[in-house]
Write a structure and sequence with these properties.
2 copies of one chain form a homodimer. Chain A has about 400 residues and is an alpha+beta fold. Chain A is about 25% helix and about 20% strand. Chain A has 10 helices and 11 strands. The longest helix of chain A has 19 residues.
């Protein structure tokens, strides 16, 4: 772990990227960073705060998600990377380059340059720590939260190890896909020698609203998704279900959360041949309005006891019944997933498309794992989906300001 | 080939999707299509016209590109598919579903439903025919334009057959990625039994402007790309370089064009470690302004004879020198490519990202092939890129109105 002085050193090194900006020189990167114009109204999401942005933040339209494996054996180098990333994120989320794009002609540009002129596009950058980070490499074993246990194998899992796990994760969300990708790319670049990309996922078309100001979007099944999601305007639900509080066994995680990522492939071609009534029975909602079956409007309350001719209106195996808080001891998740498509499955010629599910919670064992265990056993939707990737991360709290970094209280 | 009566039959069948809309029933798809509200201003690009939309159309932000292989041996069935696609495209490009989303409960919805509420988002759908369509399966061998010859192997090619070729292509461009993907998905669905997806590519961040009203975007190398592209407002250049005219040996293609698609992977990590001066030497432009080296502004004329201290300002192997019309007997292409990223190359752990190059022209032999042959031999950029996919398509002219279809004059 870095001592006080080495901690200062790496922060200086990290901020050197911004420092280079201030020392001048010719070039648009420099000009931008020393004289930043006003950001387009509403385009900047604040980076610092009690919680990391990108969780209870109105969901942006695009996602670039990356999981990294740490390759160094040095806790100091790992901490230095987290400090460098924090300094870079503070710049990027303001719509500025990591550092000067044009530097000395004989040096590589510090920023890769492809987002020059695109603005911040509501970029948020959220970092998490996987269970493997707490093995014996970095002396962190005693700092591992009890709830940061690998997600157990669940019925029906068809997980690809190459799309699962990771020591670190970076979730970049923005309203411009190039801005989101730029973060992933530059974070991978800054990590050179310390960590390498393990897997990544692009997403489009947010599949949940996380603000009451947003319409409920449709997923690739054509249904509204996330109607009853936790919203940024619901502090009580956020405190109860999302933010880690005093109950944690690890003080460094207080104010943070846990992120579950699941790559859920939809068997698009099978779904598209299913009758409308079957699709609605499986999900438990009307495809057009999004209303629970038997109700008229999307936000009409879900009545799991309603019957028609002696049969439940919401099927016993319907997805919304099994996922409902009422069926799960009141437990809820903050969902923040995206649709994805990764071309064609070479083995079958079918589309590899679906939902990249991201969910935040303060206790993955009693929330995601418990809910998913029930779904995996009984959900009618299982006929049309496959879970092909899985990862869990502890997401530390927000950074207080310049000089703070992800994991300061973990490594300190 | 379909006779007059079978042609009418398949058009009726195709329009049956729209027909179902008109016959009523409950459901939001129906309501939308029978009483379409006004489209958001500027969101609809006209589908019918002398040329297909999606070529000299202001480039949208997102791409879903699909190549199909025809699986039927019946020319009638193939023609029926093209008619069905045309009827569907006329609806989709207005922001309407393929047909009713909600139909009878015991039938699958005609449209998959995920773009309900998203509008047209400037959707264009452009269809082309690959060289293989003119083999002996459909009696079209004598209708193959001489210029529709497979692109010859070029120096340095590292093509993946699974990302190359195809009997048919569909280029869907839109300002919303879900709208673009929806077209690919529903076209694949309508093709069931007649054609199957061969490969597909998603793209984001247009890498060329095709209108004088658009700024020049930056590609993933961080440089402005497409500064001297042919623009929609340049009818003389379009006639000279893009639209097939009376010179063609195949009248059915008059008013059409040829599309070359090349998946060009960038060796991102190598590029990012190259010094700024090296990056600028390779491309021949300043990274910041986009100006030719030695000039001040992006649109300053390119002077290939300029020297400094006896050395050419634009390197002899610089990309812009070798690609310039002046070096290529005045030949130009209309470029319409997109950035892509497809995650991580499992064999190396490096990003699989780059440029999905799309270019329209009226003579691929003297345009793309001749220019690329020179680039492949001498371009300094070759150190940082790999061509990993390749395809050529003849793109028929635009459709005149309802009842017209892609290839009517080819099959007729």
């Amino acid at each position: 772990m870095p001592s006080g002085s080495s901690r200062r050193t790496f922060l200086t090194a990290a901020l050197g990227t911004a420092g280079a900006v201030a020392t001048g020189g010719a070039g648009f990167g420099v000009a931008r960073a020393t004289e930043p114009g006003p950001a387009p109204a509403g385009a900047v999401v604040g980076f610092y705060g009690a919680h990391q942005a990108g969780i209870a933040t109105s969901a942006q339209e695009h996602l670039a998600f990356a999981a990294f494996d740490v390759t160094t054996g040095s806790a100091d180098e790992l901490a230095r990377l987290l400090g460098t990333w924090a300094a870079a994120a503070a710049q990027l989320t303001k719509g500025r380059p990591v550092g000067a794009v044009e530097t000395a002609p004989d040096a590589p540009p510090i920023d890769t340059g492809e987002v020059e002129g695109l603005g911040a596009a509501q970029l948020t950058i959220t970092v998490g720590f996987g269970p493997t980070l707490f093995d014996d490499r970095f002396g962190l074993a005693s700092r591992r939260p009890a709830a940061l246990a690998e997600i157990p194998a669940l019925p029906g899992d068809t997980l690809d190890p190459a799309r699962s796990g990771g020591d670190l994760c970076v979730q970049a969300c923005a309203d411009d896909p190039q801005v989101a990708f730029h973060t992933m790319r530059n974070f991978a670049r800054l990590a050179r020698g310390t960590a390498v990309l393990r897997w990544s996922q692009l997403g489009f078309g947010r599949t949940a609203s996380t603000s009451t100001a947003q319409d409920t979007p449709r997923n690739l099944m054509g249904f509204k998704d996330g109607t009853n999601n936790i919203k940024a305007e619901e502090p009580h639900d956020l405190a109860r279900h999302v933010w880690v509080g005093d109950e944690t066994d690890q003080a460094w995680l207080r104010g943070g959360s846990y992120l579950v990522a699941r790559r859920i492939r939809m068997l698009i071609e099978s779904w598209d041949t299913a009758a409308l009534a079957e699709q609605e029975r499986v999900l438990g909602r009307a495809k057009g309005t999004g209303a629970p079956l038997g109700e008229r409007r999307e936000f009409d309350p879900l009545d799991l006891t309603a019957t028609k001719a002696g049969m439940p209106l919401i099927d016993r195996t319907a997805h919304i019944r099994l996922a409902a808080p009422a069926t799960n001891a009141g437990r809820k998740l903050l969902r923040r997933g995206y649709s994805y498509t990764d071309g064609i499955d070479a083995s079958t010629g079918l589309l590899d498309a679906g939902l990249f599910f991201l969910a935040y919670q303060n206790d993955p064992v009693s929330q995601f794992v418990a809910i998913q265990r029930r779904l995996a056993r009984h959900d009618a939707l299982n006929e049309y989906i496959r879970h092909t990737g899985s990862a869990l991360f502890a997401v530390p709290p927000g950074l207080s300001g310049p000089g703070d970094w992800w994991g300061r209280d973990l490594f300190g």
